[in-house]
């Protein structure tokens, strides 16, 4: 991918959430990206729990939340190297969360920050997963970003997934009504 | 989430992270976490600090005047915006064929639900008249034609009200309502409007762009469009029940020189039962789970969004019970 294409992607305002959704459900990605965000209005207990968790988990840590461009990072840890941290409520979508984190790392690298690793925290299961960003990841991530743009350029969202995970998704009512 | 109704005059203010209603003799503190609407039927003093707090907590404040007429709402700043959906909404308004298609759907849904109210009471002749009118919906060539068709249907519907309720009705009179039944309908419709409005604000739909009603109406007319579908089920049925069970009596109305309005006691009876109606649950056949009546509004908005996206034609909520 050349630098023109990268600029192009920035313009498309791809957020970390969108990267994660790309690996979860293309329909969800499309709806979310078009501003049809149902996360805030769903009474879905999981969604609310996730939000509260996100808002409160690291309050006592003395680290700032750092945000730039479309990226939001829970906190950065300075140990010679910068680490990206993300808090997630369950390991169900681990692959998606890993790519979300790798996207943040990539964005930091683009800014010239020395960062090649991060940690996903799962406080509810008291687990943490280390994520390392490899050169191969960069290529895969570029493919995913292009894939995201392809999904978003479609006039209609993808058909509903029809999978078991739909029942716990904030978009369930919307998709199945 | 709950709805609070304020009937006594006083001051509503923010007190740290709660709301305090200060009356002459007492102070009531309400935790904000579970409020989503506040209806105010009395004189209240309030300040911008309160409104800012309500906006932050996504709470709507609706005002009714002394006579129970709806004055307006404070609605928190839109948190959901979608330029994409807005463009589609406008497109469906500007394209006459698309607008008419949606407008017809609203009327079709309303008439289905109206018919169901009569069907249960075995008004066979009026039901077949409504069927005839419904068949004409598809042939209407303009919004005006559609509106007049709807007016015909409504007249036939309201003609049964004196018999159903045993109360004087005459014809529908709005500003001002000429008798108790009309006052009740106006009040109930205003309540329904606010419920729809709140749900619209939770989606990315723009409440000012409507299809059956003209967007130029001073109100958020999309809420008027959608309320048409729900009024027969949520409001009319409730009115029949309250009268037939003798829960509302002539004494709940004040007869002014020129018009009639619900007294505080009458409003209390109505909103209590209205609230219970909204909280009732029913097994949804498509989603295969129990959902609240009030969620039916949200689901219809989802269907409307899908229609606007071009994904699936909107089919309004048709009462099945
Ligand atoms: S309900 Fe299913 S299809 Fe719809 S967005 Fe969620 S996961 Fe995708």
Automatic annotation (TrEMBL), chain A:
UniProt keywords, alphabetically: Antiviral defense, Exonuclease, Hydrolase, Iron, Iron-sulfur, Manganese, Metal-binding, Nuclease
> Single Gene Ontology BP term?
defense response to virus
Keyword set includes Transmembrane: no
What cofactors does the UniProt entry give for this protein? Answer: Mg(2+); Mn(2+); iron-sulfur cluster
Under Gene Ontology molecular function, one entry of this record is: iron-sulfur cluster binding
Which residues does the UniProt record annotate as the domain DUF83? 15-177
EC numbers listed for it are 3.1.12.1
**How is the co-factor bound, per the entry?**
Mg(2+) or Mn(2+) required for ssDNA cleavage activity.
Q: What does this protein do?
A: CRISPR (clustered regularly interspaced short palindromic repeat) is an adaptive immune system that provides protection against mobile genetic elements (viruses, transposable elements and conjugative plasmids). CRISPR clusters contain sequences complementary to antecedent mobile elements and target invading nucleic acids. CRISPR clusters are transcribed and processed into CRISPR RNA (crRNA).
| Family, per entry | Belongs to the CRISPR-associated exonuclease Cas4 family.
Put simply, this protein is called: CRISPR-associated exonuclease Cas4
């Amino acid at each position: 991918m050349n630098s023109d294409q990268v600029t192009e992607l920035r313009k498309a305002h791809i957020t970390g959430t969108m990267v994660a959704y790309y690996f979860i459900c293309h329909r969800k990605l499309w709806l979310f990206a078009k501003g049809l965000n149902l996360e805030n209005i769903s009474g879905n207990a999981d969604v609310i729990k996730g939000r509260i968790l996100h808002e409160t988990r690291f309050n006592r840590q003395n680290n700032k939340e750092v945000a730039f461009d479309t990226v939001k990072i829970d906190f950065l840890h300075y140990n010679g190297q910068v680490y990206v941290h993300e808090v997630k409520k369950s390991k169900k979508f681990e692959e998606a969360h890993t790519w979300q984190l790798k996207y943040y790392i990539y964005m930091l690298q683009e800014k010239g920050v020395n960062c090649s690793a991060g940690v996903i925290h799962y406080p509810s299961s008291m687990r943490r997963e280390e994520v390392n960003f490899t050169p191969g990841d960069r290529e895969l991530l570029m493919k995913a970003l292009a894939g995201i743009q392809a999904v978003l350029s479609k006039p209609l969202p993808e058909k509903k997934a029809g999978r078991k995970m739909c029942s716990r998704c904030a978009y369930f009512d919307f998709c199945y009504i | 989430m709950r709805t609070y109704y304020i009937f006594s005059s006083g001051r509503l203010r923010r007190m740290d992270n709660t709301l305090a209603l200060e009356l002459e003799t007492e102070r009531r503190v309400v935790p904000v976490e579970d409020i989503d609407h506040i209806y105010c039927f009395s004189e209240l003093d309030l300040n911008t600090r309160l409104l800012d707090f309500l906006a932050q907590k996504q709470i709507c404040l609706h005002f009714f005047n002394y006579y129970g007429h709806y004055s307006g709402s404070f609605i928190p700043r839109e948190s959901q915006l979608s330029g994409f959906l807005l463009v589609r909404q406008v497109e469906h308004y500007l394209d006459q064929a698309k607008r008419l298609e949606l407008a017809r759907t609203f009327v079709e849904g309303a008439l289905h639900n109206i018919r169901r109210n009569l069907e249960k009471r075995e008004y066979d002749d009026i039901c077949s008249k409504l069927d005839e009118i419904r068949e004409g919906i598809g042939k209407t060539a303009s919004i005006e034609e559609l509106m007049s068709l709807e007016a015909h249907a409504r007249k036939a519907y309201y003609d049964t009200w004196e018999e159903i309720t045993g109360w004087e009705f005459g014809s529908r009179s709005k500003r001002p309502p000429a008798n108790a039944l009309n006052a009740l309908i106006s009040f109930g419709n205003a309540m329904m409007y606010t419920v729809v409005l709140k749900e619209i604000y939770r989606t990315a739909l723009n409440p000012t762009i409507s299809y059956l009603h003209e967007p130029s109406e001073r109100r958020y007319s999309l809420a008027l469009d959608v309320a048409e579908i729900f009024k027969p089920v949520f409001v009319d049925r409730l009115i029949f029940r309250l009268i037939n069970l003798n829960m509302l009596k002539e004494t709940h109305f004040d007869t002014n020189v020129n018009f009639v309005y619900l007294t505080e006691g009458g409003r209390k009876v109505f909103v209590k039962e209205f609230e219970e109606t909204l909280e009732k649950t029913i097994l949804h056949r498509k989603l295969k789970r129990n959902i609240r009546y009030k969620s039916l509004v949200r689901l219809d908005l989802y269907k409307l969004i899908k229609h606007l996206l071009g994904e699936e034609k909107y089919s309004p909520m048709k009462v099945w019970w």
